[in-house]
UniProtKB/TrEMBL annotation:
InterPro entries: UTP_pyrophosphatase-like, YgjP-like_metallopeptidase
Name by which UniProt lists this protein: YgjP-like metallopeptidase domain-containing protein
Protein source organism: Cocleimonas flava
Top-level taxon of the source organism: Bacteria
YgjP-like metallopeptidase domain boundaries: 26-230
CDD domains: M48_yhfN_like
Amino acid sequence: MKSDTYSLALSDGAHPYLVVRSKRAKHIRIKLSNSGELSLVLPAGTPDSLGHSFIQSKSVWVEKNLSKLSISEKETIPTSLNLRVLNEQWNIDYINPSSTQMSLQEDDDYCLRISGDISDISELHFLINQWCKKKSKKIFTLMLQQLAEEHGFHYNGLSIRAQKTRWGSCSSKKNINLNCKLLFMPVDVVRYVMIHELCHTLEMNHSSRFWDLVEDCDPNYKKHRRELKRLGKEVVL
């Protein structure tokens, strides 16, 4: 089987998908893995244009099912946060469990104090993710600006999100989205993700031209990409 990577335009940016040409396939079909990897399977001899039109017509289905993946929570109560990008270790203390309102307070000693009933894991993760979003907005804004200036890219805006399946995206209007959970990645890996999305401001695809552009900006991008995949499995939020 032969395969190539392309991008599907969704409401919040581009999502990569792999085109797989199969001699055994009789019909065009879409596959979405539990990790969010999207594939378009084409029977041998099917024109690429027909396949791309098909998957674009199913974009609503793709978004709906990606959302279902992002809703799934790991039943974990974190006791610390390792912000690798900042080389900071934050401890989490849980206090006042009898309080009906869950709240988070940041102390100067690299400690987050969370009060209230934490039996609702989804609500707990939401609270911590909100803190991560605020923390990453300030850091990533500066990092992205510096990288764009360094490599001559232009983008319109930056949004921070807490997603399960994507580390970043870039819209056709050159608006970049970054996952706040990149806080848990080493700085070189974060830089790779930013460069990846900045390159999409010029190439809204994953063609050889795109990857050549990425490599020009980050010669070790393949290593950083592997690290992202490996470390991403450790993120519990």
